[in-house]
Amino acid sequence: MDKLWYLSRISLFESLPPEDLEQIDKMAPMTHFNKLPKNTVIQQPDSTVEGLFIVKEGKVRLYKLNADGKQFTVGILGPGNMFGEVHFISLGTKGLYIETVEETLICSLTKNQFENFLLQRPKLAIKFLQILSDRLQEKEELLERIALGNLQDQVLYLLVKLADKFGIPSEGGMVKIDMPLTHQELANMIGATRESVTVVLHDLAKENIVITGRMNIQVHLSKAKEHLANKLDEV
Amino acid sequence: MRADIRIYVTQDCPSCKEVIRYMERYKERTFRPFEVLDVGYNKLHFQEMLELGGFATPFIIVNEHKLHTFDEALLDRLLEDDHG
């Protein structure tokens, strides 16, 4: 059950549209020349960091370890995404490992800044509500997908989610996921083994739904979504 | 030798300016010194912040306590306990 829950949270941290973030951006402008190196552990589960933070550049990965030391990725945050915990708001990042995936820049917001910002912009507060409601819906979809789907569906669903969030258009209708991803990392995200994910990726490559390269993956989004939709019709 | 109270900052970071103003007011009352370290330009200060577990500015140190964000109420309490 835990696994389902972690996976279902992959989509929890969708960023707000850039125009809505411009104002937040002004509160925490980017001035560093020094970035956090890749694989810097920002938070460990037993020492939750207090505060609200925005990823300005780069990406961080949120994950948990199970009793066997296996990693479950809960989410990946890119520029514009927020994380953190203060007493009045929780962005759902308590008790997680947070680690940079690449060189990253992070800024903090004070509680007052954030509160005043929301108070002055009721529309944005409503947007937060919408995001929460979307999360619920996605979670239900995902639970269904995992309860009824096989590993191929899980991998494909994950790739579609990652491509939606971090994709850049490539040739032939493919979308490249703009982050280095190993098969092991994909396996970690859905609690599968690397070997089984590799097999699934080969199958998907044969069907021309994905192209895998060294540390990079491209997905044919429309084919992938069609594939998943067909599967859903079958059940 | 670093001061007991230190703030790791970057330029143009509004929260950093807030915490510096706060500490200046505190210093006027208590005469306790504090140190401001720029991590945006200075690699050594940046490295020092990373080693202490800081990842965003302002990163505030009060003796062994580390604050990753400027929470005035919390800082009030920490400084009072520390001074007191």
From TrEMBL, chain A:
Pfam families (alphabetical): cNMP_binding, HTH_Crp_2
Family matches, as SUPFAM superfamilies: cAMP-binding domain-like, Winged helix' DNA-binding domain
Domain HTH crp-type: 149-223
Lineage of the organism: Bacteria, Bacillati, Bacillota, Bacilli, Bacillales
Annotated ranges, domain Cyclic nucleotide-binding: 12-118
Identification of the protein by name: CRP/FNR family transcriptional regulator
Species, as recorded: Paenibacillus sediminis
Annotated keywords: Activator, DNA-binding, Transcription, Transcription regulation
Gene3D superfamilies according to UniProt: Jelly Rolls (2.60.120.10), Winged helix-like DNA-binding domain superfamily/Winged helix DNA-binding domain (1.10.10.10)
CDD domains in alphabetical order: CAP_ED
